[in-house]
Amino acid sequence: MARAYPLDRVRNFGIIAHIDAGKTTTSERVLFYTGMSHKIGEVHDGETTTDWMEQERERGITITAAAVSCTWAPTYEEDQVDKKKRFSFNIIDTPGHIDFTVEVKRSLRVLDGAVVVFDGVAGVEPQSETNWRYADEGKVPRICFINKLDRTGASFERSFQSIINRLTKDAVRANLPIGEEENHEGVVDLLTRKAVYFEGVLGKDVRFSDEIPEAMKADVEKYRGELIEKIVQEDEAMMNAYLEGNEPSVAELKQALRKGVINNTIVPVFAGSALKNKGVQLVLDAVVDYLPSPLDVPPVKGINPKTEDEIERHASDEEPFCALAFKLQTDPFVGALTFFRVYSGTIKAGSYIYNSTTGEKERLGRIVRLQADKREEIEEVYAGEIAAAVGLKDARTSHTFSDEQNPIILEQIVFPEPVVSMRIEPKTKADQEKLGLALRKLADEDPTFRVSSDDETMETIIAGMGELHLDILVDRMKREFNVEANTGRPQVAYRETIQKEAEANHKYVKQTGGKGQYGHVVLKIKPLEPVDAEAKVKNNVTREDHFEFINNIKGGAIPGEYIPAVEKGVREAMERGIVAGYKMEDISVDLVDGSYHDVDSSEIAFKLAALNAFKEAAQRANPVLLEPVMKVEVVMPEQFMGDITGSLTSKRGTIESMEDRGMAKAVHSMVPLSEMFGYTTQLRSMTEGRGSMTMEFDHYAVVPPNVAEEIKSSRS
């Protein structure tokens, strides 16, 4: 089967936003206008296509990133049906709730561009900032859509200024709304100076008019001038011509604007209301005109596992096959799905797929392309495309698939550590095995969901990014695996660390008649600056999980065969903690000396010597408890401001700033996570149901001594 669309007519992009900015509604309009769905699903009706899990439809939020393939012909093309005029879109609709940010992070890794949706009343919100930061890290080109301009209190200009002030100075207005709130009728396209109206059934018919409303003409000329001045900076010859009074043509301006978007030096901002069917088609035109094709982004880099040299793969069907698995999902009808993005080469259904991360290969039975909850089987996937493999057993998120003769391992996706945990047990003993299987499958799908067991109580512990995250996973166990479970109260994922250097010398000696036990180590420990999780292993220094182990043994004081046992003993001690039994981190451990016995030394003796030496050193190193601190934003009517700020400070919170948010007020603060459980309910009662809150992890901080004592008492 030949490639359906050439690479320059392919667009891989995500739709990202803060929760409730209207992102899923925008996605539904996209599917409707591109012909993928024959009716529009609404979030409030629980009928959306991209929200296909039962919990998503019930809760009205997007939990998993739904991948959808569709095609689009720009509105300015006269022949909308001609396939040669159409573009192939692979769209990922990502969640806006903070507990599911991992979906945004992994989606952005495999996308070439993004449409960022904002609420026209609220403007930039906390999750908008987090998502923007992730897109900055990945150098993902963006266009913006200020949505919900039909709502009371909506303001395109205020929302635009919030983008300028809080996200990027490179934002420019690409169009202006014709009217706002109940008077929102359409938009004016600044480059073409045309008024655009969306008519017919559900705004499907786009009408361009040369008649701009009289009251808008001055603003159109003013902001068009600003737009052109920003665009011509992308091309020196164009800028010189413009300064001499020669305005470039619309086609030339579009070409330069495309260059600016791809280089991340310009972010065009569009206006509209997805719910009222206004403006979405122009955003799709902008995806075609300004977001990159796979040919416009740099080649993907990776490591040759045989030589450890850095190598590249270009977007070409002719290059060796290379793809990245970015998501695992269990589908109720077809089983395990592995979503992957192909960077180079092609692969056919029925062939073998080589996993260069594990060095194993398995048969690729079926490949499907996704229309959210519908599956279209395909024979072959080409460079630049996104698809899902059915039934792969050993693939995991971040694994690289490649040509076996030309292997490459791409950089792994790094995920945040969980901050909330809870105990879980099946409601009936008979379900113990089913519970274990369900938890394993869910952990395979979601890298921020962790399952462990408490060595002392033998209870199962689950950990995730927030209460909602764990609630939904427990709910999924019931629906998808038919396992009902009892859960404990959510617990904070505390950590421990040290604050100064210390040394310990421990000799483990045991004589029991026969062969004895002998291990002797001298350890120096010191606080370590938090390290990037992507740091690589270098020489004899291991740096990962906020831990550094340095082997400084000289002259064979401890034989090399026992060094791994020393590191293992240190790691075990760090897992157990010494303040309140929580995992320790950000510590450098230097093995400086020791001794051994020809007959009595063993791995277990050195492991126990190291474990005890570390505990002794850590006790002298001013150990402290760390707690996750959350960035909290509360939005409420002004009359509740005093109550809210008082309640946040009473929870050991610090107020960072306050601002107007349409007709409401927003308070930004930093509050320890342990104080925030159940706060949504309190907020509802304090504001008569009119307040809302968003919360995301910001950093770990030292727990005050009085609070640390309470935590220790509750653990003992």
From TrEMBL:
- Where found in the cell? Cytoplasm
Q: Name one GO biological process term.
A: ribosome disassembly
Q: Which Pfam families does the UniProt entry name for this protein?
A: EFG_C, EFG_III, EFG_IV, GTP_EFTU, GTP_EFTU_D2
Signal peptide: which range, if any?
none
Query: What broad class describes the main subcellular location of this protein?
Result: cytoplasm
Specify the domain of life of the species encoding this protein: Bacteria
CDD domains for this protein: EF-G, EFG_III, EFG_mtEFG1_IV, EFG_mtEFG_C, EFG_mtEFG_II
Annotated binding of GTP, by residue: 17-24, 93-97, 147-150
Keywords, A to Z, come to: Cytoplasm, Elongation factor, GTP-binding, Nucleotide-binding, Protein biosynthesis
Cited SMART domains: EFG_C, EFG_IV
Q: Which InterPro entries match?
A: EFG_II (IPR041095), EFG_III (IPR009022), EFG_III/V (IPR035647), EFG_IV (IPR047872), EFG_V (IPR035649), EFG_V-like (IPR000640), EFTu-like_2 (IPR004161), G_TR_CS (IPR031157)
Q: Which GO terms describe its molecular function?
A: GTP binding; GTPase activity; translation elongation factor activity
The family annotation for this protein states: Belongs to the TRAFAC class translation factor GTPase superfamily. Classic translation factor GTPase family. EF-G/EF-2 subfamily.
Q: Give the matching HAMAP family.
A: EF_G_EF_2_B
Function in brief: Catalyzes the GTP-dependent ribosomal translocation step during translation elongation. During this step, the ribosome changes from the pre-translocational (PRE) to the post-translocational (POST) state as the newly formed A-site-bound peptidyl-tRNA and P-site-bound deacylated tRNA move to the P and E sites, respectively. Catalyzes the coordinated movement of the two tRNA molecules, the mRNA and conformational changes in the ribosome.
The name under which this protein is listed is: Elongation factor G
